[in-house]
Amino acid sequence: MRGIHLDVGNLLFNLNKYERIVILGVGKACVPMAEGVINQLSDWAPSTFLITKDDHLSSTFSPDQNVSILEAGHPIPDHRNIEAGKTLFSLVGTITKDDLVIVLLSGGGSALLMNPPVGISLADIQAVTSMLLKSGADIRELNTIRKHLDVFKGGGLAKLLYPSTVITLILSDVLGDHLDAIASGPTTSDPSTFADAWSVVNKYQLLDQLPKHVITYLRDGLNGKVPETIKPGDPILDHAFNVIVGNNQQAVQGAKDKARSLGFNVLEWHEPLWGEASQAGQTFIKNARGMINQSASITKPACLVAGGETTVTVSGNGTGGRNQEFALACVEELSGTDPLVVVSLATDGTDGLTDAAGAVATNGTFTRGMVKGLIPRDYLSRNDSYHYFEQLKDLIKTGPTLTNVCDLAFFFAF
């Protein structure tokens, strides 16, 4: 804040010129984000509406702060997502050109912010989401489909808020900070098309599996019978401003700083981790070992820090997440006498549909597991990394962290 001006990036907004200030938040981090914004705007008493994931309600809001918070399903939406979307749609209908709307977006927003078009049911969206999560599709591909099956996504919220002034503060859970992919870009333009969404369907061979109403709707979009999402240059975005306030790079830097403070000599993995989790894990351990062994300037104890977000193509019936699978893929390669450790975790505290953030693997994990009859390759083939590490008590359980900036991986050499 600068007096009566809100300072956002390189922009200043005179708050006295607006009739009303409204805060709309969605995502795993929207509650603490809202706390920070409301504290800055205490003299203007903003009206606040938030949609967050279960167990992400930690808050110091007082009863007089006019804050409404709804919990909804994630990553698979449920009836609460529909009801929250209806409530938000009604609220947006009261916004005028004289209002300032501050939108707070964070990871999980794509599932939580939901308002499917007429003809697409909750069951349809649940089926699509489940199939895509298991297919190995990355977040941009997943959200390309989502954006074309929802009223809010792909600039839809900005369209509904027009002609008010909209400032969107974004905690990025997407590598590269692509605005259109974070929470499926509700307040920015969308370069993707129905043709792109159809390409994702074909790429992962989902045509015969998706609900018929979804296929019909996407085909109607292909044939121009359904309006496209908001495209670059659309004038409804002239008063919509998007600002990244946190991302994976900042998390990596923070982890490096902490490692140095603990006495580690630090290296950074300069490419983001991505692709199939098991393959990325094997590549990571092999290259990390080489980097530290070949670096004359790095002495032990050493720590290599990497950031990114991998995917898992689910072919088995096990339980796990991308970080647990990443760590499991490192177990056999780590085995030996050299004291080595790999840690992989989700910054939001939730890895896949589990209560773990990730897992720890050391040079002794393989042997400890074999004593119990645990064969890493068998568990990988079933996508059952959770039960492998659970039996060794090597799961990382943090609970909800109330943030989400992709994943972190560490390689320690002692």
Commentary on this structure:
The chain is an alpha/beta fold. It has two domains: about 5-115 and about 150-190 and about 230-245, Rossmann fold, CATH 3.40.50; about 250-414, glycerate kinase, domain 1 (3-Layer(aba) Sandwich), CATH 3.40.1480.10. It is built from 14 helices and 14 strands. The chain has a six-stranded parallel β-sheet with strand order 5-4-3-6-7-8, sandwiched between helices. Strands 9-10-14-11-12-13 form a six-stranded mixed β-sheet, sandwiched between helices. A two-stranded antiparallel sheet has the order 1-2. Helix 5 (about 140-145) crosses helix 7 (about 195-205) and helix 7 crosses helix 8 (about 210-220). It is globular and about 65 Å long. The termini are far apart. The mean pLDDT is about 95.
Class per helix and strand makeup: alpha/beta
- Our count of helices gives 14
What level of helicity do the residues show?
25-40%
Q: Could you tell me the strand content as a percent range? A: 15-25%
The CATH class label of the largest domain is Alpha Beta
